[in-house]
């Protein structure tokens, strides 16, 4: 039935209100009441009615977010309020000096405290509203003159075209256009599919997206606008009130802000977010601290190009520039030769970095990294430092290429590479560097877990030629240990007691301790549950091993090869002869509420240790993995989670906090 103009007006009004309601929920509050398909259906209906009655189309209609014709150029516009720069602070002392300067200027202490907000890394924009409608959006530019990007900003769903609530006749606000880490990963994935160059980082991608001449390009990017400042006077008295007003007008504001009564509280805020910044959906390089009282802000004013009443606190950089002084090889417990860059020491993410892994020869060739090169090194959270870029224009003439040596640098044996792998191996199964790494692994927490026997003591025992293999550990006597440095009667008795207790070990721990290639903690548990005894595992065929869940062809082949090797057979025999008792554990996998689910745990749990959490998951039929992948069902995130949390967000894996995890276990 064709609508009359009056009916169309009423329907358009209701549709716009409904669409606006769901836009606000989804893009500002991160909530959802209806499906994406239902929202699309509402938009289609509105679009159809507006096509029939074009005279009823208004600038604030949701349909007008769709981009128009490409622009020939971005016009320059002058800001009504000059956007000044920020002073920088890098330490608590810098913040204290900033406060002292301001108090000297005011001739009084700062009252009303501070307002701290994370400095989300994006493109600064200024939005102007007249009578509640968006009339202009511009980039910050040089602070006085920016570029008119109104058409592009209208496509950003978190920017309201019409304000909510009781708004003033004129409103000018400042915000940041952001691209989340997840959206950035998806954008680059699409670029790679199309064979196009990858973007450098979310900040540059967001900025480039807004400065497009064709707004249809902007519309395709998953951009977000977070608003944090009101530039004109609408009666606000504190910065805290500014954020309350912005939220009431319908803007998306940052959930990471905090009112702080003094600098001590500001420092706690900064410490908290410095530790947690990896868990954020957006990149951040620090926080902005402002004097909360706006009357004091006006009294303080500005100096040069910077406001006196606000300061940017910079977190320790996660990337730094340094020089590759050497590239050396280390041998792991499976015999893999890993190239390691020895760097001129540099401070990265709060700690001094002097080495970075180069992974393998393929990675060295991809980066084209050479000894003498100036490089960008990156360290984030618990991630091992990495070289992510070579600044080739700074390469000296004497820069030296590196290649994995043909002979093991430790034992002189030949180095080989399997056709289907990138890694090079030392072919000597008795290479002393390999044996040392194997022993480190053998006594580690999830293996034999011998209290007091760590890498330093292992080194001491090896250097004194008291031990050569893992089996020798269980034959140690007081006479072997007492002559060694740092050993006395009590420490010897404690270590020998720990060794004696470790002789009784589960099959899963024993298998893991052997260091069989591709057999991690979870695979060892699966093997123990499937076969029950050491004899059964050691004699299992590839076909039988392939029947075990999580054991594929590569792992099965590796296990068979391990137990077929005479050197490895002798080690197992010697361990048993030394008194190691491997418990039988025919564990039948129980069906439970977590059957078929794979978990990854990151961060610190308050109610239990990670190992206890793993046991609870397994008891309910679930599995625990060490890394996040598409096969991960849940990531359990405790306090201060690491890079696994971020990877889960990128892959869209469901993240459980501790409360959700405990509820799932009930």
From TrEMBL:
Per its UniProt record, what InterPro entries does this chain match? BRCT_dom, BRCT_dom_sf, DisA/LigA_HHH, DNA_ligase, DNA_ligase_AS, DNA_ligase_CS, DNAligase_adenylation, DNAligase_N
Q: Which residues form the BRCT domain?
A: 589-666
Q: Which gene encodes it?
A: ligA
Extract the Pfam families matched here: BRCT, DNA_ligase_aden, DNA_ligase_ZBD, HHH_2, OB_DNA_ligase
> Which residues of the sequence carry a binding annotation for Zn(2+)?
408, 411, 426, 431
Q: Which GO terms describe its cellular component?
A: cytosol
What are the GO MF terms of this UniProt record? Answer: DNA ligase (NAD+) activity; metal ion binding
Which biological process, per GO, is one annotated for this protein?
DNA repair
Supply the alphabetized keyword list.
DNA damage, DNA repair, DNA replication, Ligase, Magnesium, Manganese, Metal-binding, NAD, Zinc
The name this protein carries in UniProt is DNA ligase
Q: What does the record give as EC number? A: 6.5.1.2
Q: What is its cofactor?
A: Mg(2+); Mn(2+)
Give the PANTHER family listed for this entry: CHROMOSOME TRANSMISSION FIDELITY FACTOR 18 (PTHR23389), DNA LIGASE (PTHR23389:SF9)
Identify its protein family.
Answer: Belongs to the NAD-dependent DNA ligase family. LigA subfamily.
Could you tell me which species this protein originates from? Candidatus Kerfeldbacteria bacterium RIFCSPHIGHO2_12_FULL_48_17
Which positions are catalytic residues? 119 (n6-amp-lysine intermediate)
Tell me, what does this protein do in biology?
DNA ligase that catalyzes the formation of phosphodiester linkages between 5'-phosphoryl and 3'-hydroxyl groups in double-stranded DNA using NAD as a coenzyme and as the energy source for the reaction. It is essential for DNA replication and repair of damaged DNA.
Catalyzed reactions: NAD(+) + (deoxyribonucleotide)n-3'-hydroxyl + 5'-phospho-(deoxyribonucleotide)m = (deoxyribonucleotide)n+m + AMP + beta-nicotinamide D-nucleotide
Per UniProt, NAD(+) binds at 85-86, 117, 140, 176, 314
């Amino acid at each position: 039935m064709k609508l009359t103009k009056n009916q169309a007006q009423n329907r358009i009004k209701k549709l716009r209100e409904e669409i606006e309601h769901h836009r606000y929920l989804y893009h500002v509050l991160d909530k959802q009441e209806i499906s994406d398909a239902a929202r699309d259906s509402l938009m289609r209906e509105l679009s159809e009615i507006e096509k029939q009655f074009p005279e009823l189309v208004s600038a604030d209609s949701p349909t007008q977010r769709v981009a128009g014709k490409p622009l020939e150029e971005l016009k320059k516009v002058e800001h009504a309020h000059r956007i000044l720069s920020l002073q920088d602070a890098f330490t608590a002392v810098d913040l204290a000096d900033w406060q002292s300067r301001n108090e000297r200027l005011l001739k009084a202490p700062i009252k009303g405290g501070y307002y701290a907000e994370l400095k989300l890394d994006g493109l600064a924009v200024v939005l102007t509203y007249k009578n509640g409608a968006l009339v202009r959006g511009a980039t910050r530019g040089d602070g006085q003159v920016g570029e008119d990007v109104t058409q592009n900003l209208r496509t950003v769903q978190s920017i309201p075209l019409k304000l909510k609530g009781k708004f003033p006749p004129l409103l000018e606000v400042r915000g940041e256009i952001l691209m989340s880490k997840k959206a950035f990963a998806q954008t680059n994935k699409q670029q790679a599919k199309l064979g196009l160059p990858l973007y450098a980082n979310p900040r540059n991608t967001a900025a480039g997206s807004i400065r497009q001449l064709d707004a249809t390009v902007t519309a395709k990017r998953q951009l977000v606008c977070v608003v944090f400042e009101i530039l004109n006077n609408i009666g606000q008295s504190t910065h805290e009130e500014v954020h309350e007003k912005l939220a009431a007008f319908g803007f998306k504001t940052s959930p990471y802000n905090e009112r702080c009564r003094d600098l001590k509280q500001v420092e706690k805020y900064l410490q908290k977010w410095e530790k947690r910044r990896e868990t954020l959906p957006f990149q951040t390089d620090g926080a902005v601290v402002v004097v909360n009282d706006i009357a004091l802000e006006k009294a303080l004013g500005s100096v040069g190009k910077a406001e006196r009443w606000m300061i940017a606190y910079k977190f320790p950089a996660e990337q730094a520039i340094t020089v590759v002084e050497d590239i050396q090889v280390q041998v792991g417990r499976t015999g893999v030769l890993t190239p390691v860059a020895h760097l001129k020491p540099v401070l990265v993410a709060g700690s001094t970095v002097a080495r970075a892994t180069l992974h393998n020869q393929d990675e060295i060739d991809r980066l084209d990294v050479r000894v003498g090169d100036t490089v960008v090194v990156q360290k984030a959270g618990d991630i091992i430092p990495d070289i992510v870029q070579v600044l080739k224009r700074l390469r000296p003439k004497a820069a030296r290429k590196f290649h994995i040596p043909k002979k093991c640098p430790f034992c002189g044996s030949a180095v080989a590479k399997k056709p289907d792998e990138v890694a090079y191996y030392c072919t000597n199964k008795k290479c002393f560097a390999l044996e040392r790494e194997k022993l480190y692994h053998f006594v580690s927490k999830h293996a034999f877990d011998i209290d007091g026997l760590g890498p330093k003591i292992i080194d001491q025992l090896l250097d004194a030629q008291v031990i050569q293999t893992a089996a020798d550990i269980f034959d140690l006597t007081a006479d072997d240990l007492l002559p060694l440095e740092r050993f006395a009667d009590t420490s010897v008795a404690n270590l020998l007691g720990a060794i004696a207790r470790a002789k009784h070990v589960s099959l899963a721990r024993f298998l893991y301790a052997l260091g069989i290639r591709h057999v991690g903690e979870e695979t060892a548990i699966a093997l123990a549950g499937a076969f029950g005894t050491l004899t059964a595992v050691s004699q299992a065929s590839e076909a039988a091993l392939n029947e075990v869940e999580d054991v594929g062809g590569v792992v099965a082949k590796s296990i068979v090869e391990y137990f077929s090797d005479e050197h490895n057979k002798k080690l197992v025999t010697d361990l048993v002869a030394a008194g190691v008792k491997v418990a039988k554990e025919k564990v039948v996998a129980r069906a439970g509420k977590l059957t078929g689910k794979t978990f990854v745990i990151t961060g610190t749990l308050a109610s239990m240790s990670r190992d206890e959490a793993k046991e609870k998951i397994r008891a309910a039929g679930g599995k625990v993995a060490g890394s996040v992948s598409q096969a991960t069902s849940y990531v359990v995130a405790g306090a201060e989670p690491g890079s696994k949390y971020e990877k889960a967000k990128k892959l869209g894996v469901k993240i459980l906090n501790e409360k959700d995890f405990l509820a799932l276990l009930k």
